[in-house]
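Notebook p. 47: complex prediction with adenosine monophosphate.
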Amino acid sequence: MRLPALHEGDFQGKRVFVRVDYNVPLQDGVIQDDRRIRASLPTLNHLLSQGASLVLASHLGRPKGQPDPKYSLAPVATHLSALLSRPVRLVSDWASPIPLRPGEVLLLENLRFHAGETQNDPEFARLLSQWADVYVCDAFGSVHRAHASVEALPKLFPHRYAGLLLMAEWENAQRVLSNVIHPYLLIVGGAKVADKLPILQNLLDKIDRLLIGGGMSYTFLKAQGLPIGKSLCEDEHIEAARAILTTLQKRGKKFLLPLDSVVAPHFAEDATARVFPHLPNQFPEEYMGLDIGPQTIASAKTFIQGAKTILWNGPMGVFEWKTFQTGTLRIAQFVAEETQAGAYSLIGGGDTASAIEMLGLSDKVSFVSTGGGALLELLGGQTLPGIAALLS
Ligand code: AMP
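Predicted complex, structure tokens below:
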């Protein structure tokens, strides 16, 4: 499948609708992290250099289908204006379009101020379509949702394209989905087994090695009959976890689960941490694992070595708390080292990306995805509505 690329379009004098993902964290109207805004700049600058005018649209947070000043895109318009060095006008009333001159930039107020957005309402999409001649989607973080601006709207335009960010996300995802260079190592972590099961099941045939850490790993350890104390465990997924490990074993593929954990008696930032191995009679009942332990880190180092393709999604522990972030940070270092030694590495998920960024390693890995749910669904083998709409 080949997405329609931006360089195939003619944007001279055109009004271009760009669906961006400006769903940034805000606190008291101040943007806490502008990565998503900066990630859209290459596409916007490309279109402006071609003589287009821009109508930008995004959602922000979860307003309930009606205007809510808390979720206004006003701070984004101000920040974007500074980044682009040109005015960005925020448009709140967009029942009828405004004439635009080449180089002008509008930002439509939060799409989710209208119920039609999440309802994928055709009439809402028709209203939006009046604003532009061409459609560009650059909102990778939103393409897994069948909402009006990503699903119904593009189909109303004869010319529609993937923006540079969306294209980069798509092409990098393809590198871990098809024509993969082996050995292929998958590293998964984070809290919820259910979120990661589709990826594991979809990639099981393709990968050569699997490293599981984080809260989800304890369900796998329990499936193996090993002690996990009070650690997170999703009993309803034990069977699925066991099936995955059995399949890997049958196919002669290697996997690494935590050999030991950094544990605490309760889930708290200031809890006293100790280390125990996941061995019968050695892991105390009253403790919970909150990070992978030193023995696991040492084994992970050799486990990662020699991989030629690495996909990593999800932290190895409660990475938000200093006491329990060593595992995630060490894995980030190993992945960066292996990338420097010639491996291709794709990093996905907010926490994993933060770990890489914290260590200043973002340019030492091959690609850091901006998509959370969208990446999980894509890697889980699902068809994403916003991608399908560009192709249809
Ligand atoms: P996810 O969204 O499923 O990728 O999970 C990310 C979250 O998992 C982060 O907020 C981590 O703090 C949390 N997490 C990672 N390891 C553990 C653990 N051992 N116990 C509880 N939570 C964890």
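Notes: The first helix runs from residue 35 to 49. Residues 23 and 149 are 14 Å apart (CA to CA).
Next step: compare against the earlier run before touching the bench.
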